[in-house]
Amino acid sequence: METTTTALSADVLVIGFGKGGKAAAHVLTDAGKRVILIEQSENMYGGTCPNVGCVPTKMLVHYSNAKRFEDDAQEFFAHSVAGVRELTSAFRAGNFDALDGKDTATVITGLASFIDAHTVAVGGGEDRITVTAPTILINTGSEPIVPAIPGLADSRHLVSSTDLIQKDQLPNRLVVVGGGYLGLEFASIYRRFGAQVTVLEASDRLLPREDADIARTVSEILTGDGVQIITGVKVTEVRDNQNTATVSYQKDGRNLSIDAEALLPATGRRAATSKLSLEAAGVRTTPRGAVEVDEHLRTSRPHIFALGDVNGGGQFTYISLDDSRIVLDQLLGEGKRSTSDRVAVPHTLFITPPLATVGLTETQARAEGRSIKVSREKVADIVAMPRAYTVEETRGVMKFIVDADTDLILGAALLTIDAQEIINTVALAIRHQVTATELRDSIYTHPSSTEALNEVFDKVLPE
User: What is the DSSP letter of 426?
Assistant: First the structure.
C-alpha cells in the first residue's frame, strides 16, 4: 500500500515540551514566528516538572505531611494520588491549550527523529509527518538510569519515580538504591505516608557533596522519621520472589539482604537522546550522551540549540527556563547572554524540613585556601525565628560561609522550614554582593523564617 507523508514547515521547530522549549515557543510565537512543537507523549505536555517531577512530588510532600496517626495509610495515600492526578491533568491540558491555541503555533504528538540537519520525521506509515525549519530547539529532557545490577532491570518490582507517583497502592516496603536528592525525597515522602523505607547508599555517608555536619543532620532527621539508612553498601543482585524482591548487598565484608515490594533506583538520570537520530543531523554528543553545546547553547550545527537536561547541564526546571532566555537572546536579542552569566544557582532537597544550598560549602572554601567565618545555629535555638515553633517544625540548622576579609557571603546550607524560599534571598545577596552584615541588619516581616538572618550571622563558630 502506498504511504503518504505530510510535509510541514515552520520558522522554529521545538522538539520536546519541557520548560525551556515551552517558554521559548511562547515568546517566539508572540514575536510573529511560526512555531511547531513536537512532544512524544500526550502525558508530558508541559514537560517533566508539572507531570512527573516537581509539581506531583512536592504535592505528595504536602499530603504526606498532612497525614494523621489515625488515618488509614492506604486510603490516605490513594486519596493523595487522586489529588495529584487531578492537578497534573489540569496543568497538562492548560499547557497544551495555551500553546496550541495560538494562531502561529502547532503542537504535534509523536516521536521525532532527524532526517537531516533541518528536517525531522514524526510517526510512520500513513501518519508520517515531516517538519522542516531553519532553526531547531532540542528540549527532550532526561531519563532515569537503571544501574547494571544483576536481576534489577527484569524485576517485576522495579519502579521509576514516575511509576511510584502514578500508583495508588502504597508499598508496604520501599527500598531506594541511591541516597541523592531524588532518592531521599521519595524516602521521606513514602515513610511519612506509612511505608517502611530503606535507603541503600554506596558512599560512606549521605550527600557527600555537602559538609559532613549538614549531611549528618539530614541523616538524623530521616532516621528520626523512621527511614532506615544503610551507607557504604554495594548492591550485588535482585531476585524476584512471589510477592517481593530480595535485594542482596555487601557491607563491611558481609553479605546481607532485604526484601521489598517496590524497588526504586535513584542513581541518576541521563540525557534523552537515543531516539533522536542526532547523527543524521550532524549533531555531536558528549561521552555521557548529552547534546554537546557551547556557552550560547548552540550545538555542532549552529542553527540547532539544546535546552534543559538534554544538554548535560544542571537538571533543574529553573535552569531549563534560563536556557530559554539564552536561546531567545540569540534568536531575538543581542546575543550576549550565556551560561557563564550564572552565579549562585540555588538547589533544594525537598525532604521535611527541606535542605536548600547555594554557593560554596565550608569544605570547598577551605580547600580553596579562603579566609572564612562560619556562622551556624540550630533552628531550635534561633530566638529570632518563632515561625519554626508556630508551625511545629524546629528541626534543622542554618549555616553560612562568609569571606572573613570582605564580609561577602560565599555559601549557605539551610536545613529548615521555608528553606526553599530563604535561599533565594541569600542567592540574590551573593549575586549582588550584599554583605552578611547587611543581611543581618535588614528588616524582615514577622513572624517569618527569613528573620532568622537577623541572628544567625552572629553565631560564628570558633576556628
Answer: H
